[in-house]
Amino acid sequence: MSAPPVQLRIAREARVAFASDLHLSASDPDTAEMALTALHEQARGCAHLFLLGDLFEMWVGDDGADALAQRLASLLSALAADGTRVWLMRGNRDFLLDVRSPHLNMATFSSRCTATLLDDPCLIDLHGVRTLLAHGDAYCTDDTVYQQWRATCRQPAWQQAMLSRSLAEREALGRQAREHSEAGKREQSDALMDVNLPAVEAAMEAAHAALLIHGHTHRPALHRWQDAGGTERTRLVLPDWDAGAGRGHLTLWQDGTHLPPG
Ligand SMILES: [Mn+2]
Fold first, then answer.
1. Rg value, the chain, Cα
2. Structurally, how many domains does the chain consist of?
3. Is residue 133 part of a domain?
4. Is residue 134 part of a domain?
5. Domain limits at 107?
6. What is the CATH number of the domain that holds 81?
7. Do residues 121 and 20 touch, judged by C-beta distance below 8 A?
């Protein structure tokens, strides 16, 4: 199979920041402050900032942007004005981000952030390394119930039917789905919630990628291994943000390697 094209080449001298799973929500102002402050202070001066999904705890359409979302948009626009290219990816919480509908007569959220929406996954050249960027939920293939839901809620017809509902209706449905998902999580085994290694290796092999950077699992780690074919693989899992638990940081990449947090 021929490998997909590289969408972006990032020169070695360019400093790059990655984050995911900010889960911004008015109900957790401490985490929001922590995440927005880190973006403001640490992404400044970076050539690129990648936010790899679940920026928001819930996203029911671009017309549902609250004060926190407006703050993020202003902050990212300010970074962009200072020369940082900002890239957004959808996660499993904000899968309706940037989805257009005749019912939403407004600029997309990423354009309000002066950002560019990336496909999930997408392939970049990061300081000379073919790197796959993803939210990560697509590789959790052991959770078949979730994968069915994922396939459904990404269908254009499903999304358009959803966006034709009123904002209040969508918010109520979103809250129900959140409660359902939290209840489901408590019943599921730990392994089911992590990525499936063969699924990861298949995606990396198809993209000829040596490095995969993703979030979603809330299991920050740097995994290095050799696959069955002897190919060296690296997988960097970004942390989620939770001020109460003291978790969350921006991952900075410089001179071909990532810097320790802090
Ligand atoms: Mn997620």
1. 18
2. 1
3. yes
4. yes
5. 8-258
6. 3.60.21.10
7. no
Protein residues within 5 Å, CB atom, of ion ligand 1: 54, 91-92, 216
CA of 53 from ligand 1 middle (Å) equals 7
41 within a domain of the structure (yes/no): yes
Q: How many whole angstroms from 146 Cα to the centroid of ligand 1?
A: 11
Distance 111 CA to ligand 1 centre (A): 22
pLDDT, averaged across the chain? 94
**DSSP assignment string, 71-117:** HHHHHHHHHHHTT-EEEEE--SSSTTTT---TT--S--HHHHTTEEE
Per-residue model confidence as pLDDT tens digits over 82-102 = 999 999 999 999 999 999 999
d(CA 55, CA 223): 24
Dist. CA 13 → ligand 1 center (Å): 31
The answer to whether residue 3 is domain-embedded is no
pTM as predicted: 0.95
